[in-house]
């Protein structure tokens, strides 16, 4: 899917075609095929192979500087399922005339811009647009981290009453999500630091024009990203400790159950032994007594009661 946007007199035009894209336009590429990439390459003069790099799900966050464009790859957060989060590479190309974004799927990061819901967003302010994408990404990371924290609290409440495998699998999915987030945030942080250093590079002013407001925005993005990293580390430690704690509780509960079953086995073995002795074919006490059966039952009950008392005193029952 190819979309072309351009601000004119403060209004975002979204009905443009790639063939009529003008200077200051934003070309949004989502899950493109080879024909789409060739068209974008012809219009922007960005090599097709470079455009394809942003479609690699394993692409790492980085900044590449060429003579005719700046290529920035960041990893943005996405929601896969109710309790599953992941990251996806987003490629941003800045050329003298256009800004191009390439991604495998439509995401919440870019929806804020395609739907013109982001304040002070202009397609022709390419550097600021890049920083706004970074800020939106950091904001979404923080939002999803809060959702993970709330979900963790809900799972903890459930585990306090019922320790089923389903809840532990949910914790595992959240731990995986936090691992993906931590890796993406560190990579994005390195990209932001490099972009901040590039402001002193005079040879890139035709591609990256940084005004004072842009530098302030980038510094705010770096702060937000660092906060997200701290939250990821904190929530990861919480989840790890929670998993270890509930694993210990489950092990302890299993020991209690096994101890109880062992005690029951000991108690039941006492009357079983007595009844076995009185079941052999040899002369035995009370075999001529009409109350012999009840006497044997009484002896078995007394011995069982003694066994229960001993186990109780030893706190084994």
UniProtKB/TrEMBL annotation:
Membrane topology recorded in Swiss-Prot or TrEMBL: Multi-pass membrane protein
UniProt subcellular location: Membrane
Keyword Nucleotide-binding annotated: no
GO cellular component annotations of the record: membrane
Record keywords, A-Z: Membrane, Transmembrane, Transmembrane helix
Any single Pfam family the record assigns to this protein: CorA
GO molecular function term, any single one: metal ion transmembrane transporter activity
SUPFAM superfamilies with a match to the protein in the record: CorA soluble domain-like (SSF143865), Magnesium transport protein CorA, transmembrane region (SSF144083)
Chain ranges passing through the membrane: 260-279, 291-313
InterPro entries: CorA-like (IPR047199), CorA_cytoplasmic_dom (IPR045861), CorA_TM1_TM2 (IPR045863), MgTranspt_CorA/ZnTranspt_ZntB (IPR002523)
Family: Belongs to the CorA metal ion transporter (MIT) (TC 1.A.35) family.
Protein name: CorA-like protein
Organism: Megasphaera micronuciformis F0359
Lineage start: Bacteria, Bacillati, Bacillota, Negativicutes, Veillonellales
